[in-house]
Design brief:
Layout: H1 5-37, H2 43-46, H3 48-71, H4 73-93, H5 97-122, H6 131-159, H7 164-167, H8 169-183, H9 198-221, H10 226-248, H11 262-291, H12 297-303, H13 306-325, H14 328-348, H15 355-382, H16 390-415, H17 420-444
Helix pairs in contact: 1-3, 1-5, 1-6, 1-8, 3-4, 3-5, 3-9, 3-16, 4-5, 4-8, 5-16, 6-12, 6-13, 6-15, 9-10, 9-16, 11-15, 11-16, 11-17, 13-14, 13-15, 14-15, 14-17, 16-17
Length: 463
């Protein structure tokens, strides 16, 4: 039976989403091999391969979402895909660490263009009552990519070369390009005409960029370092200026009236909380498997397999269930399972490997929790937005998740040491972050009455 058009569009854009989300985590596994290859480059210097990508990606999302609304979602999607694939080739061929870092920053900008445009292309293809299911699959692809990054990366590094983690993007990107050129239909926000708010875009990129810079580099540089303190101060100063600019602009990068919608503000708050725990979990679990249990990189990657598989199986049905019974009643059990799975590790994991009796059951439960939660949070935030705000809403949700991820990993680095007590502290943080997202949803989330999209009231513009 032929796929309906909406599902074809979802399949096409999901390939690109997979690539973007994959590169958030896959390079972590390849980092030691890169360090060995670029002799004379310090660990701190080469760490910008990771930090540069995360900072540029988070900082560019809001502007990318507005560009998609204004210039056309299809056009921006393909522009981002082209930039991402070319930048991946630059990274794979890079003869120096400097060129590799520059390629990673360019790669992040391409990824930021892809992500909000892809969801904005998908959502109009589905009626409002089926959008949660569609976003569930779309979000599950991103979550699956982030979780399978260590698996795929370990296989490529072990059996090919670290450069293969970048070259793998080319064939998949080409498939999405060729399939999408015939399938995707252009759309844009008719109210987004006029000159783009360049100043607002610069302020938005700068405020998010400085915040992520301070969080990501805080441990390496020291939180009392003048660069970290200065970055925090810059973020604190620029953020209200950015919001004021958005309030006064006729064509803002971020429409602040979105936050009048309870489902949007609460859903994104919960996404931020869950992302802190989710990305912290990936980071700390790899450290435990390799550092305490002595697993090889490949073995650690394979140990992750049950979780992503369960998340992929559960995510689609979770989206359909959210359409029927409401998002919070799907997210709350998922957050509970996610929290319980890390508590299981606190209670039973030891210094001697016990994969099948301890790690495997925790991974299965965690995967179910992630499948119920991470993509459903995305649909809770975006499914009921008006069509002309899909790209902007998706961009903000991705920004919230990325900032949450950066903060979560920073907390892990601060809490973790060589003792089992250090890992326990991190797992408590992971558990509580996940549980907090469920509590926020149950206590505060309300979907629009009758599941209809309520038009956004225009923001008053001062004379």
């Amino acid at each position: 039976m032929a796929l309906a058009r909406g599902w074809k569009v979802l399949l096409c854009t999901s390939v690109a989403v997979y690539l973007v989300s994959l590169d958030v985590t896959i390079v972590n596994i390849a980092f030691p091999a890169m360090l060995a290859d670029f002799e004379g480059t310090s660990r701190a210097g080469l760490s910008w391969v990771l930090s540069g990508y995360n900072i540029a990606f988070a900082a560019s999302l809001l502007t990318a979402g507005r560009l998609a609304d204004r210039m056309g979602r299809r056009r921006i999607f393909f522009t981002g895909l082209a930039v991402f694939v070319v930048a991946s080739a630059i990274c794979g061929l890079a003869p120096t660490a400097g060129l590799l870092i520059a390629g990673r920053v360019l790669q992040a900008i391409g990824g930021a263009l892809i992500l909000p445009a892809s969801l904005a292309l998908v959502l109009p293809e589905f009626p409002v009552e089926r959008r949660s299911a569609a976003i569930g699959v779309w979000g599950a692809i991103g979550g699956l990519a982030a979780a399978t990054g260590p698996i795929l990366g370990s296989v490529l590094v072990e059996h090919v070369d670290w450069r293969a983690v970048f070259f793998v993007n080319g064939p998949l990107g080409l498939v999405a390009w060729l399939y999408g050129r015939r399938l995707l239909v252009e759309s844009s926000d008719p109210a987004a005409g006029g000159v783009p708010d360049v100043l607002g875009a610069v302020l938005g990129v700068s405020s998010v960029g400085f915040l992520c810079l301070a969080i990501i580099q805080g441990d390496d540089w020291g939180y009392s370092d003048e660069r970290v303190v200065g970055s925090f101060v810059a973020a604190i100063v620029l953020l209200p200026v950015f919001l004021l600019r958005c309030r006064r602009s006729t064509n803002p990068v971020l429409d602040l009236t979105l936050f009048r919608r309870r489902f949007f503000s609460v859903g994104n708050s919960a996404s931020f909380l869950f992302s802190m725990g989710f990305f912290a979990m990936i980071f700390v679990n790899v450290q435990y498997l390799t550092g305490v249990w002595g697993y090889s990189i490949l073995s650690a990657g394979l140990a992750f397999v049950p979780g992503p598989l369960m998340a992929a199986v559960v995510a689609g049905p979770a989206g359909r269930a959210a359409d029927r019974i409401g998002h919070r009643w799907v997210i709350a059990p998922g957050a509970l399972l996610f929290g319980v799975s890390t508590m299981w590790l606190i209670a039973f994991v030891g210094t001697e490997p016990a994969y099948w009796t301890v790690w495997f059951p925790s991974s299965v439960v965690m995967g179910i929790g992630v499948g119920l939660t991470i993509s459903t949070l995305g649909s809770a935030s975006n499914a009921f937005l008006p069509p002309d705000r899909f790209a902007m809403g998706s961009a903000f949700n991705s920004t919230a998740r990325q900032v949450g991820a950066a903060l979560g990993i920073a907390v892990v680095v601060a809490l973790l040491d060589d003792t089992t007590a250090g890992f326990d502290r991190v797992w408590w943080f992971v558990s509580l972050s996940g549980l907090a997202s469920g509590v926020v949803m149950v206590a505060l989330y309300r979907r629009p009455i009758a599941d209809v999209q309520v038009p956004l009231e225009p923001e008053a513009v001062p004379a």
